[in-house]
Amino acid sequence: MASLINSELFKDQYSTKEMRAVFSGRAQIQSWLDCWVALAKAEAKNGVIPESAAEEIAQKAHAEDIDMDYVREGFKKTSHPLMPQIRAFTKLCSPETGGYIHWGATTQDITDTGMILQLRNAQDILEKQLEHLLNQVLDKAEKYKALPEAGRTHAQHAVPITLGYKFAIWADELGRDLERLQHDRKTYFAGNFGGAAGTLASLFDKGIAVRNDFCKNLGLAIPTITWHVSRDRLANFSSDIAIAASTIGKMANEIINLQRTEIEEVEEGFQMGKVGSSTMPQKRNPMICENIYANVRLVKNNANLGLEAMVQEHERDMSFWQTEWMYLSEMCLVFSAAIKMMSQVMDQMIVHEDNIKRNLNMTHGLIVSERVMLDLGRYIGRQNAHEVIYEDAQKAFNDGIDFLDVLLADERVTKDVDEATLREMLDPARYVGSCVQMVDDVVKKWRK
Fold first, then answer.
1. Given 3, 52, 94, 277, which residue is catalytic?
2. Phi/psi at 151 (nearest 5 deg)?
3. Rounded to an integer, what distance in angstroms lies between the CA atom of residue 62 and that of residue 415?
4. Within 13 Å and on the Cβ side, how many CA atoms surround 157?
5. Which first-to-last residue range defines the signal peptide (predicted)?
6. Strand partners, 153
7. 213-236 pLDDT, tens digit each
8. Which of 61, 90, 425, 435 is the least crowded, having the fewest Cβ atoms under 10 Å away?
9. Is 277 a residue of the active site?
10. Is 364 marked active-site?
11. Which long-range contacts does 162-166 make (Cβ < 8 Å, 24+ apart)?
12. Number of Cβ atoms within 10 Å of the Cβ of 375
C-alpha cells in the first residue's frame, strides 16, 4: 500500500473512483499530450511548424501507446519530470514530425497547463457532487421546516429554531460554495505558455498569437502574462476547495454532536450489520461523519501549501510547483470522498422527533424566557424586565421548578401579564421566528 488513496481497503474512504481516474498516471500523461497537440495546432496555424506535423502529433497523442516502463526508467536517469515523456512521444512519430514536438515550449508550460486540465475535470466532478448534495439538504430543509427544535448557542439551549432552519443554513452555505467555484473557474483555469523564462522569445513575433491559440484550443482562459511564478490562481482554487470542504466538515461535526447519547436528535443512519465498536456491542457511533471530518482536515491542511507556493524565486522555482502535483490532487480526491459520504449520510439520516421534542422541553419553559422578557418589557421597560426574568429564570434553574410556576408566583410579572398569556408565551412552537420563511427563501434561491 503506497497510499490510503489507492489502498484496496480504504481507497473509497479517501477518494472516489471517478476522481482517481482524473489523477491517474495515464490521465496525467494524456493531459500533457493534449497540450502538445494544442501547441502544435496553434503553431501550424501561425506558420511556425508544418501543418502535416501538427496533424501527425494529434493522431499519435494517445497515452495508452506510451511506453510507461521507458518513461519511468527515463525519470530515474534524467531526474527530469518531462524529458522522458518527450522522448517517448517522439518515438511514436516520424523523425520529421518528432522534431516539432514541444517546439518553443518549456517544461512548466506543459506540466502547468496539463495540471489545469486535470483540475478542470476534477472540478466538473466536484460541482456535480455538490449540486446533488445541495438538493438533498434542501429536501431535508423543506421536510422539517416547521419542526421546532432547541437552538443552541455556546453549547447551551438558547431559543427555539426549527430543524429545517438548521438544514437551510447548510444549504445556503453549500449554494455559495458552489457559486464561488463556478464563478472563479474562469480565473484559475488558464493556460500557461511562455517558453524558457516566460518571455516567448523562442517564437519571436509569433509568441503571443501562438499562446492565445494554444489556450483557445484547450478551452482555457488566456493569461495577460506568463504565470510560471505567479501561483495565485492555484491558491485561489485550493482556497475555494477548502472553504467548500469546511462547510461539509461543519455539517459532519454538527451531526456528530446531535447524535450524542444525551441529545440523540439526529443520527447519521443505522442498519443491522453496522458496527460501532469491536468491544462495546451497544455503540452506534457516527463513524461516517468522523471519516468525513478526517478528510476535511486533510483538505484544509493541504490548502496552506497553496499559499506557501505563492512565494517563488526569480522566473522558475520547481521546488514549489512540484508540490502542487501532490497537494492539489489529494485535495480533490479526499474532498470528493467526503462529499460522497455526506450524500450517503443525507440519504440514510434518522431524525428522532420524539427526542427533539423532549430536549425542547427539557428546561421547562426557560428556552422562551426571552419572549416573556420582551412582553413584560412593554410595561416596565426592557432593562427592568431583563432583571426580573433573569432572577426568575435562575431560580427555576437552581431549584428545579417549572418556569411557569416561578413566573406565576412573581407579582412583578403577574401585575401586567396574566396566566393565559404566560402559558401561550411558554409554548416553544410559538417562538420560532421567521424560520419557516427563511427556509422557503433558501429553497427558492437554490432549487434548480
1. 277
2. -80, 145
3. 87
4. 21
5. none
6. 156
7. 999 999 999 999 999 998 999 999
8. 90
9. yes
10. no
11. 162/432, 162/435, 162/436, 162/439, 163/265, 163/266, 163/351, 163/356, 164/140, 164/435, 164/436, 164/439, 165/141, 165/432, 165/435, 165/438, 165/439, 166/254
12. 18
Tens-place pLDDT, residues 295-347: 999 999 999 988 888 888 898 887 777 788 889 999 999 999 999 999 999 99
Residue 434, classed as helix, strand or coil, is coil
Q: What is the pLDDT of residue 9?
A: 73
Report pLDDT digits (tens) over 159-171. 999 999 999 999 9
- Annotation: CATH topology of 362-446: Ribonucleotide Reductase Protein R1; domain 1 (1.10.40)
Distance of alpha carbon 207 from alpha carbon 196, whole angstroms: 12
Burial label, 126 (beta-carbon count in 10 A; 0-12, 13-18, 19+): buried
- As annotated, the residues of the chain forming the CATH 1.20.200.10 domain(s) are 15-140+162-351
Alpha helices (H) along 100-218: 107-143, 163-188, 207-218
Residue pointed to by grid coordinates 523523425: 95
In whole angstroms, give the CA distance from residue 93 to residue 116.
26
Superfamily of domain 15-140+162-351: Fumarase/aspartase (Central domain) (1.20.200.10)
Q: b vs e for 61-100, b when ≥16 Cβ sit within 10 Å of the residue's Cβ?
A: bebeebeeeebeebeeeeeebbbbbbbbbbebbeeebbeb
Do the beta carbons of residue 301 and residue 312 sit within 8 Å? no
Active-site residue, selected from the candidate residues 154, 278, 314, 319: 154
How far is residue 14's CA from residue 16's CA, in Å, rounded to a whole number?
7
| pLDDT higher than threshold 60 for residue 1 | no
